[in-house]
Design a protein that fits this description.
Layout: H1 15-24, H2 33-54, H3 57-60, E1 68-69, H4 74-84, E2 88-92, E3 98-103, H5 104-110, H6 120-128, H7 142-145, H8 159-169, E4 173-177, E5 183-188, H9 189-202
Helix pairs in contact: 1-2, 4-6
């Protein structure tokens, strides 16, 4: 299935895409403007399928990943997230192996506000002051509230598979790990969108 944010303007359509599109149309094919548009639509979807299958996590990931260690304090984690303007980041253990992911949702859940909307700057300020529901969290570490095990992908994971993971798991980013489970990058939803635009410009 093609992610909705990739289903936009037509791009690189091969002869094979056209052939597959023609096979998708049942019955006798008498070429008219309407028929051509239908073939074009099917061919475009085949082209997108082909490209999203060929593009991998390794090609779109950000290799310079912001992360925290499992024994880092939550105050430190929040300040890092606020400073970088991100809503989540990987948590690593020994040898930089990914052991979990920590996000705004994790903080809100443990602060008793599962349905609340917030920013990491607000949480960071709350952790530094008294009389806030987050005060007890000062003594906690990243591993205490992180979501584990983390959903991760490999360098050779197709972008189409990652897009499906985003939709199914309702997440916006996944860490990329090597064969040993070590963190080597991260793919965010916007990375996939950018890759689709790049492919269109090449076509």
């Amino acid at each position: 299935m093609i992610p909705r944010y990739l289903d936009s303007d037509p791009t690189d359509i091969s002869d094979d895409d056209i052939f597959k599109a023609m096979k998708d149309i049942s019955g006798y094919l008498d070429i008219t403007p309407g028929d051509f548009k239908e073939i074009y639509r099917f061919a475009y979807r085949h082209a997108l399928n082909r490209m999203t299958q060929s593009i991998t996590a390794g090609e779109v990931m950000t290799p310079d990943v912001v992360f925290v260690k499992k024994d880092d304090t939550l105050e430190s984690a929040v300040e890092i997230m606020a400073r970088h303007g991100i809503a989540g980041l990987p948590v690593v253990g020994n040898g930089e192996k990914v052991v979990g992911v920590i996000s705004e949702k994790d903080f809100l859940f443990h602060m008793g506000g599962k349905d609340a909307r917030s920013f990491m700057d607000v949480v960071a300020q709350c952790l530094r002051e008294k009389g806030c529901v987050a005060i007890p969290m000062r003594r906690q570490k990243a591993e205490d509230i992180m979501t584990s095990p983390a959903i991760t992908v490999r360098e050779d994971t197709p972008v189409s598979e990652i897009a499906a993971i985003f939709t199914e798991k309702e997440i916006n980013r996944v860490p990329v790990t090597d064969d040993g489970g070590r963190l080597i990058g991260i793919v965010a939803r916007e990375d996939i969108v950018k890759s689709s635009f790049s492919q269109k410009q090449k076509g």
